[in-house]
Write a structure and sequence with these properties.
It contains no helices and nine strands. It is mostly beta strands. Strands 1-2-9-4-7 form a five-stranded antiparallel sheet, with no helix packed on it. A four-stranded antiparallel sheet has the order 3-8-5-6, with no helix packed on it.
């Protein structure tokens, strides 16, 4: 299982890119406070996003907007998946 992350700062945007190399790679269940809540954009591949009481199959171009403290995780459904997280506090 291989999950890689890279952090970027572009102007005032805090961005984290996650690359899931293989089917089944997982970004484990977690949540963020108001300072680190983010939107997630699927850039490549298909993933299953889920949280407490919900799940959604995600494909390229789809966006999830997470409120603070909402638990969530991602599981790769295809090889070579990529998601891009942008922290919302800096979008205001």
């Amino acid at each position: 299982m291989s999950l890689r992350q890279s952090k970027h700062n572009i102007d005032s945007l805090d961005i984290t890119v996650y690359d899931f190399d293989n089917v089944g790679d997982i970004l484990p269940m977690h949540s963020h406070d108001e300072r680190t809540a983010h939107i997630t954009i699927v850039a490549r591949g298909s993933l299953q996003a889920s949280g407490d009481g919900w799940n959604k199959k995600m494909s390229p171009g789809m966006i999830l907007d997470f409120p603070a403290n909402q638990r969530h995780e991602f599981v790769a459904l295809t090889d070579k998946c990529r998601i891009v997280n942008i922290v919302k506090a800096n979008l205001k």
